[in-house]
Write a structure and sequence with these properties.
There is one protein chain. By secondary structure, this protein is α/β, with parallel strands linked by helices. It has helices at about 1-15, 125-135, 165, 200-225, 235-240, 240-245, 255-270, 285-290, 315-325, 345-350, 355-360, 365-370, 420-430, and strands at about 35-40, 45-55, 60-65, 70-75, 80-85, 85-90, 135-140, 150-155, 165-175, 250-255, 275-280, 295-300, 330, 390, 405-410, 410-415. Strands 1, 2, 3, 4, 5, 14, 15 and 16 form an eight-stranded mixed beta sheet that branches. A hairpin with a 2-residue loop joins strand 15 (about 405-410) and strand 16 (about 410-415). Helix 9 packs across helix 10.
Length: about 425
Amino acid sequence: MKKLIFSIQLLFVSILAVAQETVYPAKAQSETITLTNATIHVGNGTVITNGSITFENGKIKAVGQSVTAAGKVIDAKGKHIYPGLILSASQLGLAEISSVRATIDHTELGLYNSNIRSIVAYNTDSKVIATLRSNGILFANVVPQGGTISGTSSVVQLDAWNWEDATYKADGQMHMNMPNLLPRPSRFAAFLGQTEQRSTADQVKEALGRIEEIKGFFREAKAYHKEPTHAKTNLKFEATKALFEKKQKLFVHCDIVKEMLVAIDFAKEFGFDVVIVGGSESWQIADLLKQNNIAVILAERHALPTSPDDDVDLPYKSATYLQDAGVLFAINDTDGSTRGRNLPFNAGTAAGYGITKEQALSSITLNAAKILGIDKITGSLEVGKDANIVVSEGDILDMRSSIITHAFIQGRQVSLDDKHKQLNERYKYKYGIK
């Protein structure tokens, strides 16, 4: 009996020893590392066969076929090397379990919350973060929700002790939720005891009124910034200063053409750098978006089209229309069940419907970095940029062959352990599976 109790205790201790809580953020790079004999996908469309990459002190020092190996050498023969993937818009670290209110911190009360900063609520202990690293995703733009103006988002690197350590670029984007200009009848009207529903015209009129209110908010903010001194400080107006100075971008969340045309109008009236987030119908006005230098972050690709009259595979093909028109775009993963993990496979699906694999890779690396304003330091494997590197046994865009073996953030080799892998090992042990 004592032996049985001892064995159970030993098993319990061994499980704790590999628990996610003991997976620590990696220390700063202390030695030069060279990855050799791999196929290197630079991220800008260039592919280097049988190449090597050297990095030290967190920066890339050399990339190419004739690189002299230095420091610690890791033979990556037969493998593929990629830039760290970037999740362009996510609630990562702000929401853990949707049904548990205490784990949700992405929404603030009120309509105009320009002074809200999502980064201070970012939880580096989220169990979801490690599952993203296992798929090669090393960065995420953490986005607030709720209201009309939701606040600012920040880019984080996914291996940190706290939000200060995680911050890669703080408060780079202000987020606006466009009022819905495509109203639909409520499916719950009868259940809620509503005998009469508002007409479509009334709903559109109400939405247009809300748009004018948003313009009024920005007009007042613009006037506020022109005043040399203020009798009282307005925190909501103060928070828009970087937006008017073009040090910050306005991310407008919308899908249909009418709403995107309003977003273009905002860019023209206020001089904002506007990015469309969602953009399911952006393919219809791709040339107009290009003319106005509007970038697009395409939402979930594994979804049905917005209109029932559209081709059922339109979400897969829309990236091709934007690519052909020269629109800067990124691909995202917003599926609540995958929590961002399927980002590379969303891009892989787009690669099967018109764009090349390297263009698809750019949509989740360099293009995303350009949209988020971090392309000078990451997004591609170029000399001088941060050593944010992923090594895969196969094609990172293909879920069948993508097996991530190494990941580096600013030269630090990060752990690829996660809760999914731990549970897999736990139940393999339970059922005696080797």
